[in-house]
Amino acid sequence: PSADDLAEEMEDVDFEDEGAEEPDAEAWDSEDDEGVEDGMEAQDDSEVTFSLHSASVFCVSLDPKTNTLAVTGGEDDKAFVWRVSDGELLFECSGHKDSVTCAGFSHDSVFVATGDMSGLIKVWRVDAKEEVWSFEVGDLEWMEWHPQAHVLLAGTADGNTWMWKIPSGDCKTFQGPACPATCGRILPDGKRAVVGYEDGTMRIWDLKQGTSLHVLKGQDGHQDPLTCVASNQDGSLIMTGSVDCHAKLVNSATGKVVCVFKMESVTPKAPISEGEEAESNSVESLGFCNVMPLAAVGYLDGTLAIYDLSTQSLRHKCQHESGIVQLLWEESSAVVYTCSLDGAVRLWDARSGKMISEYRGHSAEILDFAVNKDASIVVTTSGDHQAKVFCVQRPDR
Among 39, 80, 110, 159, which residue is least crowded by beta carbons within 10 Å? Predict the structure, then answer.
């Protein structure tokens, strides 16, 4: 048969219901045909695709103990715990009535917590696959597990930060200003937490006493809402990022601002004609390197800035075509990962400022991602309703 005959035969084949008889065929697709129809490149570097979500997938976390399980939450009001190796569903965290925007495992992977926008938080015991606790707060902004204990922290739109013992539910609240607690992080000592607010202020809380140790506001705070906070490995330094495009380095013991990293725009912006929006920029994500005195700041305009903490100066600017959504450092090297609105994950060498590699496979923007401990895999979630697992380990690294 000629090539034309073959092509005609192929057209008659209905590929739609292939594999329909397999019970979990819908949970993960083959990698070859992803994203072709969406007009973005058909390249797919991923190993596994998890496609049980029916809308944008907002968040992902890996279980810290084994790094074999992922939890994802999405706009479809659903959260799933699944196996990273093959995309196999372990269980669904059911019962949410709003977009699941926060999800994470406890430090020992015993529990997984899921939180939706309306403020319903549920905790599940992973081995038993059953719900052990739930609580409803105001609109949820962020949620984080304690690094050493079964304690959960969450920030809400009314300015409160909540802390619960799990599964007993013993509760404490930390009252911030009357505006959303937009971001938060428990410091590595497990005794303090840093919380950023919509009015530009930042507070360091004593978790045991329930008192605020330091408040940064006015000139010391930010001019616009805080978007992200991070701390270095020993918790001595905190970095805050804001819509005002500044990143502030703060000594956590004294509460004093050590320095301010400002992103100067290189070209003067053309005057805005009526009806046009000014190009907005903001700090979207930041983090400290564990092995060198470096910090990375990711901006909405696509700039990844690597700052040298010892000289408090800009070391490299790595440009992305589109906005950076999140960045993460490798645990034991000077490699920083970024995910962006163009749907790609990129690895950068912070020493040279050069891109090491790039991974594609999503047909929409990446909304969240996680890196496992030995930096061999990255799990991404996207507006294309999918989560993907990429193998990033290279023999020469």
Answer: 39
